[in-house]
Write a structure and sequence with these properties.
mainly alpha, binds geranylgeranyl diphosphate, single chain, cell membrane, binds the ligand CC(C)=CCC/C(C)=C/CC/C(C)=C/CC/C(C)=C/COC[C@H](O)COP(=O)(O)O, transmembrane helix, geranylgeranylglycerol-phosphate geranylgeranyltransferase activity, binds magnesium ion, DGGGP_synth, transmembrane
Length: 280
């Protein structure tokens, strides 16, 4: 893959864009502003991933040497200029849509830079920052389609599940993080406490997520697909409680991401607007 595409972590950026399109499906609003909001989220998420690799190049040389910067396919300066340029274009487009989205894009960008430079090595505050930004993605889409309340519900669940995944990722990365003097949750409180907290976030999100059906946000078609995701999340919770090894943490991190993708399908399939299109 082209290193300038790879450093964006297109999988993450596309997932973030899907969150915007899910809000469009739920609201039934597919406007040019929504498309532009999706472009902003792709650019800003990609920029966040790039600046993260810029600041992480020493840790990544230990944990993930195949990434574009440690592998020498992108220079350190090139990654910085590329990331700042992507942030700038995303923020300009966001302000062109409206003031609120511009302010959110600007503040999210600054928080991602602050996270990548300082917060990520801090116990829990780094996880809270990334999880907040991930949840904010839905709200960004909710503002673009004027469905803010629903977007906050979905953003809350994205926050909970990302908290779980970030803690599991810190368990996986703790050797390299230790080298850099990071004080992440597993380094400060150990794997046992970290696995309990990650499992708690997964269980709370899974057990309460059907409420979106009972609240009338989604139709009954939401439930069977959500059930598949819940099985994955609860299995992941049990697994990380049993085995906190770096190898299993890596597996569970990927499994949670699979569960997130299935949840996206549940949100789409459960959207009354989608069925109204099919029934017409
Ligand atoms: C039970 C329930 C309703 C759960 C909801 C879970 C859900 C729908 C989460 C959505 C999360 C989301 C919008 C993700 C988009 C982009 C993303 C993956 C953000 C977080 O990534 C940061 C992470 O540290 C990147 O690391 P990696 O994936 O290993 O490159
Ligand atoms: C609301 C707007 C305008 C955008 C939202 C942007 C989104 C979805 C942000 C979600 C969080 C995200 C994708 C941040 C990018 C930075 C990043 C990859 C953090 C995780 O990095 P590390 O903690 O170093 O983990 P890695 O080992 O994967 O590098
Ligand atoms: Mg990193």
């Amino acid at each position: 893959m082209n290193p300038y595409l790879e450093i964006l972590r297109p999988g993450n950026a596309v997932m973030a864009v899907i969150a915007i399109f899910l809000m469009a499906i739920i609201s039934g609003k597919f406007t040019f502003e929504v498309l532009m909001a999706a472009v902003v989220v792709f650019l800003v998420t990609g920029a966040g991933n790039s600046i993260n690799d810029y600041f992480d190049h020493k840790i990544d040389a230990i944990n993930k040497p195949q990434r574009p910067i440690p592998s020498g396919r992108i220079s350190l300066k090139g990654a910085l200029v590329y990331s700042i340029s992507l942030f700038a274009v995303g923020i300009i487009i966001a302000f062109a849509i409206n003031l609120l989205l511009g302010i959110i894009a600007l503040s999210s960008s600054l928080l991602m830079i602050y996270y990548a430079r300082d917060l990520k090595t801090k116990c829990l505050i780094g996880n809270l920052s990334i999880s907040f930004l991930t949840g904010l993605c839905f709200v960004f889409g909710g503002i673009a389609v004027e469905q803010i309340a629903v977007s906050i519900y979905l953003g809350f669940y994205a926050f909970l599940m990302t908290m779980a995944r970030e803690i599991v990722k810190d368990m996986e990365d703790q050797e390299g993080d230790k080298e850099e003097g990071a004080t992440t949750l597993p380094i400060v409180y150990g794997n046992r406490i970290s696995s309990l907290l990650a499992a708690l976030f997964m269980i709370i999100a899974s057990v309460t997520s059907p409420i979106l059906y009972f609240m009338g946000v989604f139709s009954v078609f939401y439930l069977p697909v959500l059930f598949l995701a819940i099985v994955i999340f609860l299995y992941s919770a049990m697994s990380i409680l049993k085995d906190q090894s770096m190898e299993n943490s890596g597996k569970i991190s990927k499994r949670i991401k699979l569960g997130m993708a299935i949840t996206f399908v549940a949100f789409a399939v459960g959207s009354p607007f989608l069925w109204s299109l099919l029934v017409k």
